[in-house]
Amino acid sequence: MNRTRIIFAAIIVVALLIVGATFLLTNRGGTPGGTALTVDRPDTVTIRILTSLPVEPWVRSAADAFNAADRSVDGVPIQVQVEAVDGLTALGRWDRDEYGALAADQRPEELTDAEREELANFPVAWIPDSRYLVELANAAYKERLGRDVFLTDGEYRARPIAISLFNWGLYNSRAEVLEQKYGDIDWNVIHDAATAAGGWPELGGEPAWGFFKLVVPNPSRNVGGLAAMIAAAGEYYDRTNISVEDVVNPEFQAWLKELMGAVTDFSSSSAYTAEDFALFGYSVGDGGQLLESDLLQNMQGILTRWEDPLALYYPKYVTWFDFPFSVWVGPETTALQKNAALEFQRFLLSDEQQQAALAYGLRPANPNIPVDATEESLFTKWADRGVLPVVPRTTAMRSPDRDTLLALLRWFELNVNQ
Amino acid sequence: MSNRTSRPATKKQNKAAPWIIAVVAVIMFGCAGIVAFNTIRNMVGFFTGGGDVPAAETVTWEADSAELTIAASPVMAPVLADLAETFNAQAQRAPDGKSLRVSVTPYDPEAMVRTAVQSPPFQAISPDSTLWLDRLEQLWAARAAEGAESEAAMPIGQRRISAQTRYAVSPIVLAAWEDVARRLGWPDQPVSWQDIQQRATQDPDFKWSHANTKHASGLLAVLAEFYAGAGLTRGLTVEAATDPATLEYVKAVEGTVRFYGENEDQVVEQLKREGRNFLDLFVAQERVVLDWNRQNPGERLIALYPAEGTLWTDHPLALLELGQGEGEPAVTKNQQRTYQAFSEFITGADAQQRLLAAGYRPADLSITLDSPDSPFANNDAVDWREPQTTLQMPSTEVVNVVRDYWYYTKRPTNVYLVVDTSGSMEGSKLTAAQSALKAFLEQIAGDRDRVGIIEFGSGLKDYSLLTVLDDGTRQQMNGMIDRMEAAGGTALIDAVYAAVATLQREDQPDAINAVVVMTDGLENESGYNLYDLQSLVRQSPSLPIVIFTIGFGNDADEETLSEMARIGGGQFRRAGEADIEELYRIISTYF
């Protein structure tokens, strides 16, 4: 072998070594967030999923079915743990980094055993109420880590697993009086009813009913309150997108404050507004714009407890929750866990589970499933109370940006909640 | 603050025989020895870090603990404890085998909230209303704003409560005897807060009561007065609440309240003891009416649902978000499991039926209130279709203003704290009593409330006259408490007699006049007897003086204390070193 051949062979060997080393390094993680935690192949892959309250009963029931079916990923059995956490509480935990995400310069392979142990319970996925919350959590982590932790595209993107609109629910006795006086129910009618100085007698109702009482969740405790304010703003401006400028408009603020003045009690810490609405009946609220699934789930209770049924109406500008199944893409969880989460996500989106969601008053995210697909569907059960399978001629509000959301929240804190 | 220019009336000192002097000398020598021993021991303790006063403990629990401790409002605590017992008997287990167990401990709602913001010894709370959860979040947010937590980027999610559920509700009503209710217009006319307030100010024989504003029913009653005084039924603002005309109105109405108190169950106890004439009407949860009528077959109570609106007690069960402060243990995964399991249990069919039987409206909306076995069925004393409307809950700022201003509009109070510092109080007992007395003084906030202290042993040792508490006088009284020393016998009746006589001399029938007496031993030195005390109290029927008695420890003279409480129309309570401070706090709510 001459010298040229020796040099050529050496170059080939070095090139192969470089390619081999690169291949090994790039295949240690494989997740979009960077190098993932490497662990020995476990006997079972357990995934902890933070789940917002409106979908928690359905997701928990699905998880029980999933766990019982011995599903696996790469041959490893999956166990799903569902943890019910109100969306804003979870956001607060992400914001405070309470789950202990690794710092930007922290490498998983450098963790001590104790640090690895601490990450064992890190949530693998989060199902918040709305994509608003995902955006806010990403914003918090972008400041801290310089990147998103929940993706909006690609394999691990946040996917809606069910839909629920916000619509009006009014006690029938009260709704009849309002319709007789004003016609169709909308935010402007509610505003006029709310500001009637003479209360219900002025509107044509009973003196014992007192003043018109509006039910809106406290926006600092329930994302539904934020959605209601966005919907009200849409109707006030008669358009689908609102901005910070719209929120700080003094005339709009005065109108909104008058509207919020009809809420009987913002002090309740509960996130279960529709349940409260049913539990305390017309005494705390004549009507309000609430999550459709919550209203549907409480329709029977309202009828049983108060004998006055609820009438449902759909607003012109619709806001909704889409319950995005959001997989954490950072290195705190393993690729196996992430893929197990995707497996459970696929299960939730299956025809069987999407049909099961109907019994909870949730609209399927899977477009193949109509809302009257099963006998247990609450949409079928309450059709005569005004629930619509398809909501016609409505306009969907666009998701406001983070600054607009925070402006609304701050306005509420300073002007109503104080 | 000792003031001997106007010494309270006591009987002449007992003559002592020479042999008694010798015995006393021996006892005093012995006491001196004990004091010297304790002093040396405490000095040693000081230098070694020991001593009698326990250091503040950081409450903690095992990392896998499955025992959930719930702080519950005193009224609900027995019901919840009963349910917890059934739950514990189910012996549910966590995946690691730990037994899921619940324990319930009663807490006054305000103390519950105060404790919950700083490393509490419990993981969950169940106050009578979500008003207290809001108060907790407010305190927590204020604390977070001061500390490192303020670095959080968003104005949301900074919460002390991670999960909550409701298991029962009950509207707040005006509980009136049937004849009183009929005279007020029931069942044909709606009865309003204003009707009651007018009746109370116009009819001197009309007797009514509401709890202190530290309880939901008391807060509602006072809010209703502020609304009426301001001529509003919603939109109460700070300006409207603090308008002089509003305050005058509230002051006039509050002047008609017979007594306040810690909660409606205490009113019921009083009704049982005093009989029908004790009160015409009181503010309470609807379930009190059902409970009373079930247990007492005589004249019925009727629930009147105020026309302007009322409030609800809604009995939340809330899991705390612990572990946010330095060194504070977090709620364990197993405790979360216990919370979840217990939440499901108390909202389950069996527990919900038991709550219905107890007079609460169950949170389970599938349970009808007019079913045949429901206490609401065929019962016109309550109406499950009511209330039609609620009063608007003002902002937290306004609620705080109402509570603060209430102290300046309520009936003034003259209260004597009569304290036994006989030899048996030596050591930790005296220390606990001193803390309790100071806690009591902290609770007295009104500028028309006056407090005096009488310290007794074999006779009157030290005393202060009735004094309005400002910073200076509070400090002087605390100084007097610090100077208390344990020695001598127990001239209990003489000391109470002196307090009653002094209050009678003050002659303020528009005020609540009361004596709170605490002793740990047996009456053995007094010149007066209980008959003398009763005669004295009866001398001034137009100036009722309420006597609260506290038996401290196991050796207290319960018979004498119970009789004293009966004479003074008050209550006898027992306390130990662990709960004497809380008991003094509770008694302070009566003023």
> How would you classify the helix and strand content of chain A by structural class?
alpha/beta
CATH uppermost class of the largest domain in chain B: Alpha Beta
Helix fraction of chain B? 40-55%
Radius of gyration of chain A: 26 Å
Number of domains of chain B: 3
Report the total helices of chain B. 20
Number of strands of chain A: 14
Give me some keywords for this one.
A: alpha/beta, 6-stranded mixed beta sheet, 45% helix, B: 591 residues, alpha/beta, Rossmann fold, D-Maltodextrin-Binding Protein, domain 2, 3 domains, 7-stranded mixed beta sheet, 20 helices, disordered N terminus
What report would you give on this structure?
Chain A has helices spanning 3-26, 56-68, 87-95, 113-118, 131-145, 172-182, 187-194, 199-203, 223-237, 244-248, 250-260, 273-280, 292-306, 335-348, 351-358, 378-381, 402-417; strands at 45-51, 72-73, 76-84, 125-127, 159-160, 162-171, 214-215, 287-291, 310-313, 317-318, 320-321, 324-327, 363-364, 395-396. Chain A has 418 residues and is of the alpha/beta class. A six-stranded mixed β-sheet of chain A has the order 2-3-1-4-12-5. In chain A, strands 6, 7, 8, 9, 11 and 13 form a six-stranded mixed β-sheet that branches. A two-stranded parallel ribbon of chain A has the order 10-14. Chain A is elongated. Mean pLDDT of chain A is 86; it is low at 22-38. In chain B, 41% of the residues lie in helices and 16% in strands. In chain B, strand 13 and strand 14 form a beta hairpin. Chain B is an alpha/beta fold and 591 residues long. In chain B, the strands form three sheets. In chain B, strands 12, 13, 14, 15, 16, 17 and 18 form a seven-stranded mixed β-sheet that branches. In chain B, strands 5, 6, 7, 8, 9 and 11 form a six-stranded mixed β-sheet that branches. A five-stranded mixed β-sheet of chain B has the order 2-1-3-10-4, with helices on both faces. The radius of gyration of chain B is 26 Å and the shape is globular. Chain B contains 20 helices and 18 strands. Chains A and B meet through helix 3, helix 5, helix 12, helix 13 and helix 17 of A and helix 4, strand 4 and helix 14 of B.
